[in-house]
């Protein structure tokens, strides 16, 4: 219970924002990850995430390595901080979302025999999601429930929609703006109920069990360029509000 409470307490602060600063060198040389004062640790870790995402990759990787090395001295601290890493770097909703940093951290975490069970599975899944539909990659579309292949027509916006979530269904209307005129729109829908019918959208059903995208993060979208490559990777819909 203590671990869950700590994670929930930190989530909002970690997702709050990123500043433009790259002063990451020596960050964990001067600090020790701990939970003696959860509020202070939460603020310290949030500062780290904000700095890391702006820093040169080599500096950020080194700082992540040192953080994990120091956190290993206390299993509870390690488990909490590794969950915070998911919130800060892996979550699509985080303004500091960085697949490069998360995959680096995940490789370190998964080599250690500390994170087990559902937490380890979550790390494995999030790492896998980060390896798909990156900018410049050949775009991937999940398998459709009806077995048909989705034919793309030029530049395409792909929105992931949870049909059990009213705000997810409502999010389709956020793209009815001049910015998206001339862009084909596809909604990949999962959950209970009929696939929505929205003018200007091709709505198709997918399973909620996916390997290339995390349906738990819905609603989010990505954009496919006319040549079939990823123009914009997984992005929270809130950016369109």
Describe this structure in words.
- This protein has 241 residues and is α/β, with parallel strands linked by helices.
- The protein has two domains: 2-130, no CATH class; 156-240, no CATH class.
- It has helices at residues 2-14, 38-54, 57-71, 75-90, 99-111, 117-130, 166-170, and strands at residues 156-162, 184-190, 202-205, 220-224, 230-236.
- The protein has a five-stranded mixed beta sheet.
- Strand 4 and strand 5 form a beta hairpin.
- Helix 1 crosses helix 2 (38-54) and helix 2 crosses helix 4.
List the main descriptive attributes of the protein structure presented here.
5 strands; 241 residues; 2 domains; alpha/beta; 7 helices; disordered N terminus
- Tell me the series of helices and strands, N- to C-terminal: HHHHHHEHEEEE
Q: Name the shape in a single word.
A: elongated
Give the structural class.
alpha/beta
Rg from alpha-carbon coordinates: 19 Å
Note the gap between the termini.
Answer: 36 Å
Q: How many DSSP E strands? A: 5
Placed side by side, the strands forming the largest sheet appear as 3-2-1-4-5
Number of helices, counting only DSSP H or I runs of 4 residues or more? 7
Largest sheet: 5 strands, mixed
Low-confidence stretches: 1-16
Beta-strand level of the residues, as a percent range?
5-15%
Write the layout of secondary structure elements.
Elements: H1 2-14, H2 38-54, H3 57-71, H4 75-90, H5 99-111, H6 117-130, E1 156-162, H7 166-170, E2 184-190, E3 202-205, E4 220-224, E5 230-236
Parallel strand pairs: 1-2, 2-3
Antiparallel strand pairs: 1-4, 4-5
Helix pairs in contact: 1-2, 1-4, 2-4, 3-5, 4-5, 5-6
